[in-house]
Amino acid sequence: MGEEKWEEAMKEEELKENVPVSVKIGKRTVLLIRTNGRIYAIGGKCSHYGASLNNGILLDHVLTCPWHNARFDITSGAVKSPPAADDLAQYEVKVENGMIMVRKVAFDMAQAASDKGKKAQKKEKICIIVGAGAAGSSAASTMRKEGFDGRIILLTEEEEFPYDRPNLSKDFLTGEVKREWMSLKPESFYSDMEIEILRNYKVIGIEVKEKKLTFAHETQMRYDKLLVATGGIPRTPSLPGTDYEGFFLLRSFADAESILSFLERSECAVIIGGGFIGLEAASALKKRGLEVHLVAPERVPMGRIFGATIGSRIRTEHEKNGVHLHLGTTPKEILKNGRRAKVVLSDQNRIDADIIIAGIGVVPAVGFLENSGLVQDGAIPVNGFLQSGNEDLFAAGDVATVPDSITGEKRRIEHWVEALRQGQHAARSMMGRKSDYSEVPFFWTHQYDLNVRYVGYSNSPDQVMERGDVEGDNFVCGFYEMGRLKAAAGIGRDGEIILLGEVLKAGINITQERFVDEGTDLRAVLMKSREHD
């Protein structure tokens, strides 16, 4: 393969310190960054969803994507944390006659990681990962890329290879996204990395002392290290009539495909539940042109999570797009009505429906651990290493109750990015690289043209402070508990959400007065704290 040629990027004098600049070189987008007097060049599009990284936030040598907070090392293009899984291209840089010149580094780090994994197959130790969702798939690839030389076996109850689960209730449900676009990685990736994926494998029991798993098809398998990343099981509403053929839960790829098939002969939909699944599904079905009714017990959608201001903004967006909201009420019965159904509500209203989709939360999928002594309050409590009460059994994602690295408070969070990052951390812990999990939770929701970002963890805020222009959809809400900032959510201020995540991670408290003051420079607050450290 021939060596890449040097190509002109931009004038050196135009590249300012710590201000990323995106340039087009042929069909490539290259990001140039000058920091501490040195110039770096990496791929300019996030490897997760293709966001332009020139709008990202640079702290030290780490660049955070403005969309979903993936982080990259600008010196190498390497992924520092999910949701991105692939490293960015790396470019050599030189300056000639005042012009910055770049050429792509021929060395492929991803391929090198794959080669490293394949060459190191001693296969002495067996690591089994139960669950091929966000946490499980992230753990498997992290272990191999970072040098684990034993067998990695990834088990899933589903027929599918790991896929983008959050997109099921978003773009996939609109019918605009092709099935093949949903895969996190091509099948060849797992074979190249020698990650064994066993599909249609349902674990029904475990012998912790003997380190053995039992499967529904009556075989057993032993392990040296085990990661439980089984995710959640969707709740079914407790009401008569859920045996109606047009009633669906939405959790798996199979669920989504069944819904898509039924939508082809549907005109009217009823969504039960005003959380992420319900609201995102409502948005997707409106894009398909259906009449959509949403039933939820809350007066303000997602108000418990986002507070009244953002919750009301979400409600307005759905009303503006024609969704019929039945808030402060619950379904009592589903009555079959020929080829249709009627959903009877607690306020005595009756809604015609061709299709009914319920999204009222999940419970951790820990049934096979029932007699292990490792489950508490329906989940698996773990330490900062994501290690359970058994030293060889780890847990990550929806099933794990994790201690906060600053407060020690236990939390269990059902979000994709958190699961990806926990999976990555658990992988390193299983390899003996033990450090406390210190990530600050982050999630987002996309409904119509409205994007909301949330960072931190606040279970019961006693004060919500607002910063910015609420009417103009350019603001952040800060969630306080006993005077301490615990979380923040915003619309139109993605950069501030990233900075507030770093503020929370550093254990810095910003008073309510400083939070609402637009003159408070969040980057300066963070940098000052780091100087003191």
Strand content: 25-35%
User: How many discrete structural domains?
Assistant: 4
Major sheet: size, sense and barrel closure?
Answer: 6 strands, antiparallel
Number of helices, counting only DSSP H or I runs of 4 residues or more: 11
Cα-atom Rg, whole angstroms? 24 Å
| Structural category | alpha/beta
Spatial gap, N to C terminus: 48 Å
The CATH superfamily title of the largest domain: FAD/NAD(P)-binding domain
The residue ranges in which pLDDT falls below 50 over 5 or more consecutive positions are 116-121
Shape: globular
Q: What's the CATH first level of the largest domain?
A: Alpha Beta
Strand order of the largest sheet: 1-10-9-4-3-2
Any guess at the CATH architecture of the largest domain? 3-Layer(bba) Sandwich
Binned, the helix content reads 10-25%
**Total number of strands:** 36
Structural write-up:
There is one protein chain. The protein is α/β, with parallel strands linked by helices and 533 residues long. The protein has 4 domains: 7-107, Rieske [2Fe-2S] iron-sulphur domain (Rieske Iron-sulfur Protein), CATH 2.102.10; 113-233 and 364-430, FAD/NAD(P)-binding domain (3-Layer(bba) Sandwich); 247-360, FAD/NAD(P)-binding domain; 458-532, FAD/NAD-linked reductase, C-terminal dimerisation domain (Enolase-like, domain 1). 22% of the residues lie in helices and 32% in strands. Helix 2 (134-145) runs parallel beside helix 8 (416-430) and helix 9 runs parallel beside helix 11. The protein is globular and about 80 Å long. Residues 116-121 have low confidence and may be disordered.
